[in-house]
């Protein structure tokens, strides 16, 4: 009897359920949206009960669409947005809305964490500096600003793990997602007693940590009956969304890196060993592959910069523009945009600058430059920013032999060629790109015994289509332009900050 696999992604905009067979063929996908709340500037929150309603709706729909016997489903893998904080009381009731990965209210708590632990020691243990997105500063924020709520806390869970608790009655997490809390000892792949002690956070609040393909629990009978799934269905640990997506893209061996251009841009690299950037410019996390790690560089406004450019032009002209219109224009201009450079820091920047006050800019603009030059410069600036992260990885011994382009950057031939030329590496695309839910389903297959291990799952289910080779002449030109691009942030940093403070003051 064939086996089928479920993956569930608790995303920021909605829950996405996916069902595939043991060969990785996707049979059905369903999404249920839910709202996001920004009650104050810098705040970003969601009601965990909205996740639960969305998860149930997506799971019921995907099983109905697939038209298979539910008892043929071998396992359910979980993934979702990282870093969020769900605070539960002794009765498993949500105390307040969850603070999300993109919530920026915790700058003071990040400074407190750094002061208590020490910047170098924090990176040595947890692999990362204290950043506002992580879970640890959110716990401190609750203690500092909502002491009545803090006094009620009995558990702190990540978003997907709250859904696990509702599905199974068990509190558990995985090493990849837990690494994004800033509370995990990367080497031990378990909670850090030193960090917990320094921050006065009880270990009892935190769930048990499993590896990505491990079975954490089974589906509760009453929940199974409501969802149309088998009681006791194995629920697999899974991973944070980036790690799970990497499994679905086959980024599970050294030498293979992914370059994802969506709203943000992510360079994701597998590593057999821990590789730490002493300055904390890269994220180093546990991978969903047992006993393995990954490095991640983030450009905050990657595709977001291109969308800003498109939408701004549309506002000026009164016409809706397509991305294809802009890439056609950009393709008419030679590499380097004839001396025009764009800095894509429209939302500040993460890698490599860790600077929320960085600002975007066109540099080198002349009367000769046209809309086509500006479009190309925006695209090139995005890839230059992502190369910044790739260069740090190379300095740490990560040597990519192939880069797999996903997101919008994988769909456009111009984006693919541009990445190949700027990275000076072959760029491949996937036959099917289904995101984190697909990776969670493959992890479920490992946990359920459908696959021997993660490598076997990837070998059987992940296939490539196109491969784009770098053009030697374009590589040489881009190396020249990139050297200038790298100088610009340091030259303009003080002016950027003065402008930012001026804007805040007004």
What's this model, at a glance?
The chain contains 18 helices and 23 strands.
What does this structure look like?
With 506 residues, this protein is of the alpha+beta class. Helices cover 41% and strands 21% of the residues. It has 18 helices and 23 strands. A hairpin with a 4-residue loop joins strand 2 and strand 3. Helix 1 packs across helix 6 (159-168), helix 12 (323-331) packs across helix 13 and helix 15 (413-423) crosses helix 18. The chain starts with a strand and ends with a helix.
Please supply descriptive tags for the structure shown above.
single chain, 506 residues, alpha+beta, 7-stranded mixed beta sheet, 6-stranded mixed beta sheet
Strand order of the largest sheet: 17-18-16-15-21-22-23
Distance between the termini: 67 Å
Strand percentage lies at 15-25%
Q: Helix segment count? A: 18
Shape: globular
Q: Could you tell me the radius of gyration in angstroms?
A: 23 Å
The residue fraction in helices comes out at 40-55%
Mean pLDDT, all residues? 94
User: Which structural class should the secondary elements be placed in?
Assistant: alpha+beta
Low-confidence parts, pLDDT < 50 over ≥5 residues? none
Largest sheet: 7 strands, mixed
Question: How many β-strand runs?
Answer: 23
């Amino acid at each position: 009897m064939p086996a089928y696999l479920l993956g569930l992604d608790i995303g920021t905009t909605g829950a996405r359920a996916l069902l595939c067979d043991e060969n990785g063929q996707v049979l059905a996908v369903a999404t249920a949206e839910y709202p996001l709340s920004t009650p104050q500037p810098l705040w970003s929150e969601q009601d965990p009960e909205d996740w639960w309603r969305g998860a149930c709706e997506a799971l019921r729909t995907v099983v109905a669409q697939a038209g298979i016997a539910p008892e043929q489903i071998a396992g359910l893998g979980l993934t979702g947005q990282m870093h969020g904080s769900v605070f539960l009381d002794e009765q498993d009731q949500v105390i307040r809305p969850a603070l999300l990965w993109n919530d920026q209210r915790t700058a003071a708590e990040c400074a407190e964490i750094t002061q208590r632990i020490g910047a170098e020691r924090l990176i040595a243990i947890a692999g990362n500096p204290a950043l506002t997105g992580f879970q640890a500063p959110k716990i401190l924020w609750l203690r500092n600003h909502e002491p009545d709520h803090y006094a009620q806390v009995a558990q702190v869970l990540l978003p997907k793990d709250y859904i696990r608790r509702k599905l199974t009655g068990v509190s558990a997490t995985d090493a990849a997602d837990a690494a994004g809390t800033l509370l995990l000892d990367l080497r031990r792949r378990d909670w850090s007693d030193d960090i917990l002690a320094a921050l006065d956070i009880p270990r009892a609040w935190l769930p048990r940590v499993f590896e990505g393909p491990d079975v954490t629990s089974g589906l509760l009978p009453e929940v199974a009956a409501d969802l149309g799934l088998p009681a006791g269905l194995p629920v697999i640990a899974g991973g944070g969304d980036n790690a799970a997506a990497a499994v679905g893209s086959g980024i599970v061996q050294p030498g293979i890196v992914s370059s994802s251009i969506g709203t943000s841009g992510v360079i994701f690299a597998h590593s057999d060993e821990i590789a730490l950037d002493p300055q904390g410019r890269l994220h180093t996390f546990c991978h969903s592959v047992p006993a393995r790690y990954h490095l991640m560089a983030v450009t905050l406004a990657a595709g977001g910069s291109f969308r800003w450019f498109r939408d701004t032009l549309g506002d000026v002209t009164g016409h809706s523009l397509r991305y294809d219109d802009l890439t056609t224009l950009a393709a008419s201009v030679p590499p380097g945009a004839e001396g025009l450079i764009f800095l894509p820091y429209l939302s500040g920047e993460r890698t490599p600058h860790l600077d929320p006050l960085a600002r975007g800019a066109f540099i080198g603009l002349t009367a000769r430059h046209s809309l086509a030059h500006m479009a190309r410069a925006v695209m090139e600036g995005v890839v230059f920013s992502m190369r910044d992260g790739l260069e740090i990885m190379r300095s740490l011994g990560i040597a990519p032999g192939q880069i797999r382009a996903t997101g919008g950057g994988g769909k456009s031939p111009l984006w693919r060629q541009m990445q190949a030329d700027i990275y000076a590496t072959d760029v491949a695309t996937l036959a099917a790109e289904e995101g984190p839910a697909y990776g969670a389903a493959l992890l479920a297959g490992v946990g359920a015994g459908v696959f021997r291990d993660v490598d076997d799952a990837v070998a059987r289910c992940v296939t490539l289509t196109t491969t784009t080779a770098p053009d030697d002449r374009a590589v040489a030109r881009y190396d020249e332009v990139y050297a200038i691009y790298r100088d610009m942030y340091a030259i303009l940093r003080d002016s950027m900050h003065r402008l930012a403070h001026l804007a805040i003051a007004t």
